[in-house]
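Sorry, any thoughts here?
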Amino acid sequence: MQTIEFSTKPSDKYLFQRMLHVSCQYQSPYCTNYSKKLFSKWKANPNNSSPLSSSLRGYRQVLECSMVGSGGQEAFDFFFAKYQSLDNNDDASSVLKSLACAREPDVIQHLLQKTLQSNSSGGFRKKYGFYVIVFMIHTPLPGFFLPETVWRVKLENW
């Protein structure tokens, strides 16, 4: 992904984005390893913005989703800290979508618990808890039936 040169044709960029999305969605080792490398670089200097090169900035959401999906609790905590430090709704939405890409059952359970907590208790701002659940339900995870898990946790804590 680092060596790919983009053409200026919108259809080529769209095709690359779709291929990248599918590669990351199905946990291709290439995407997972690349995402882990980017996350390590970002974690080493968390005050910097995303380490994506300018040619990959348009693929931020896909790659950050993969970072959370392949990074376990450590990546979740990193992105959740990013969320807590934001006041811009656009940036918050992007981070929430990334958090919704958690794949490990313990991390998913932790995320769902945070949707039940208030912002002052270490959870999400009231208006964002709902969005996290919607983003989770619309983030396909191979071999994992997420909507059932989301509703089970919600009903257990109603």
In short: DSSP finds seven helices and no strands in the chain. The two ends are 44 Å apart (CA to CA). The mean pLDDT is 78. The chain has one domain: 10-156.
